[in-house]
Amino acid sequence: MNKTDFRLNGTPSQALAAATLGFFFGAMAISLFGPTARALSTSMGLSPLQVGLLVAAPSLTGSLLRIPFGASVDVNGGRRSFNFLMAVSVIGLIGLSALFSTRYPDRMDGLYGLVLLLGCLAGCGIATFSVGVSQVSYWFRRKEQGFALGFFGGLGTASAGVLALGLPLLLAGFGFVWAYDILTGIMLAGALIYFFLSCNAPYFQLRQAGFSETESRQRAADLGQELFPAGNIRDSLRISAGIPQTWLLVGTYFTTFGGFIALTAWFPTYWQQAQGLSAIHAGVLTMVFSVLAALMRVPGGAIADRLGGVKVCFGALAAAAVSCVLMSLDLGWPGLFAVSVVMAVAFGFNNAAVMKLIPVYVQKSVGGASGWIGGLGAFGGFVFPPLLGQLVAMSPERGFGWGFLMFAALAVLNMLLNYFGMVRRA
């Protein structure tokens, strides 16, 4: 392209819409196995620990890949990374669909490892979160980032809750195999939507058009861009890793976003086994928790713009700790569901506050910080389900309650660490 012919592609609103829609489809993999865990467990003869690992498998790649791919936005702008992750996710779902079409339900013996592998591939779409966070951060001014990131994370993550109910309905209406075939088609449609709608922030478009570093920054600033990358992927990760608040935000996000992913995948099992509800009923309650926790990031981000991310973070963690303690009590499923709603609001507000604080504390390496925080934070979605499964295996009567107390203890620990690392340090 001749530099004199340069025309900016897209707008902040278009970039936000593309990232949100892309992540909406990619994040569906959070609920890939949760609603079908009982059926797969029966078909393959799995233990509670193996069920927990299966439910968590998509979150393994969906969390760890956020680290390098989030940092890659500081180099390529994000569009290339996002497209790659969505393509791999589609490949994983095609593999699962083909496997289930030929082997489910009577010929699944010995295929547990393969199902785990394909689940990990399908989970790559979850990793688009850190790519989208960085893309949106570079497009929007600082004063607008709380709302924009809350909109992106809230509406995007809501798909996990939608699928928590949608998959049981597909199973009831079309059967096990067709349900995964339809899910594969939906994921492919989402990948294509992002491919055609997405656009990088002005600086990255200017660099690709051949402008120099200095000229690209100047012209992008004239177009309204306020944040700029610090260097390559290694520099981005190194700079962000050297800032203490990055690791405080990792721990906080590990508890509430990792907890959100884990409970979205685990709640169908909890409502059915611990409370004796049907699969559809369990799917409805899981969907309410998951969608509400996701959507609360939108008002949570807006409130964080006004009050500051630290205040919102502390209030949300306190509410999360109290609600998790109540979830360990025998309140009956209606009472526990009401408490889970409060917990969902608390998780959503805290997740929005964390995203708001990334460009506050790590201005020169938003991509790298998004990778560390989004990746290691979301890793809780892989760590927690096997732990929950093991607690239930150790004590079928009390194990579920112990799991919620674990989240309460982590929330209190985060409050203490953040107080000394953010409030007192400031």
Tally the helices. Answer: 20
Percentage of helical residues?
over 70%
Q: Any idea how many domains?
A: 1
Order of helices and strands: HHHHHHHHHHHHHHHHHHHH
- Decide which structural class fits the backbone: mainly alpha
How is this fold's topology laid out?
Layout: H1 12-26, H2 37-44, H3 48-64, H4 66-76, H5 79-103, H6 112-122, H7 128-139, H8 145-174, H9 176-197, H10 202-208, H11 213-222, H12 233-241, H13 244-273, H14 279-295, H15 297-307, H16 309-327, H17 332-361, H18 366-378, H19 380-394, H20 399-423
Helix pairs in contact: 1-7, 1-8, 1-9, 2-3, 3-6, 3-13, 3-18, 3-19, 4-5, 4-7, 4-12, 4-18, 5-6, 5-7, 5-9, 7-8, 7-18, 8-9, 8-14, 8-15, 8-17, 10-11, 12-18, 13-14, 13-17, 13-18, 13-19, 13-20, 14-17, 15-16, 15-17, 16-17, 16-20, 19-20
Transmembrane segments: 81-100, 112-134, 146-171, 177-197, 247-267, 279-298, 310-329, 335-354, 366-388, 400-420
Keywords: Membrane, Nitrate assimilation, Transmembrane, Transmembrane helix
Organism: Mesosutterella porci
